[in-house]
């Protein structure tokens, strides 16, 4: 007896392996997936400029990174005792102007290098709702708690989103024609805008994505995170306490579906090996001085060294 509708997911044509170079960009769900990649010791980077929810702001920061368009003093402002930038997340803000500018431009340099080496770019789109700065007429990635009267709110059209996605793909392919793209829509519900408005926002993202994919069927794949949450996990027990974000159980389930979708058979075997080490590392002994525990630690160290010999980028903190 089945108690859920199962989403059929076609296998990704360009499997992710432990040799892959991966970058995840986008909403807070990209952060959730990034933590999974971190846990399983892949070569990955997540949101170097912080969480970015909308596709226009994503396209802008990718353009800066791909073309090395450095930030200047005109791109930053002082607010709430910190130097801020409307193109990046508040977590990067800093009280020192020179340090802030330098760190932003160092991120452009490092991201540019990574974009050139990527095998896979995974982008999670969060919302079609955006805020436009009245003074500059520019859409911002983050309002940084600046008074709302300085912005207008608008819903991006399907065409606007599609143009942003085309720009992202073109910018990356100019510097790295071998990069494979995986797009998904965040399962997080943005009901601050309203329930109907959230559905409208997601529908614009999904429609624009699928229109874009038809023009790039070989290099772009859609992974249905949003659909898995809405249909397979159609129950509030799969939400966190705020009833908006997926619970850890839901994230784990979506990761399992992503593993089947994106990873090669050999990679999934290695995945289990890394997971076994991680679980053993988390083990807390009641008798840490016992001979049994010493042997346990020796075997764990040996297994870590064995993996590191094959994959030097894997680092385990014993």
From TrEMBL:
Class in the EC hierarchy, top level: hydrolase
Gene3D superfamilies: SGNH hydrolase (3.40.50.1110)
Swiss-Prot/TrEMBL keywords: Hydrolase
Membrane spanning residue stretches: none
GO MF, one example: hydrolase activity
Pfam families: GSCFA
Protein name in the entry: GSCFA domain-containing protein
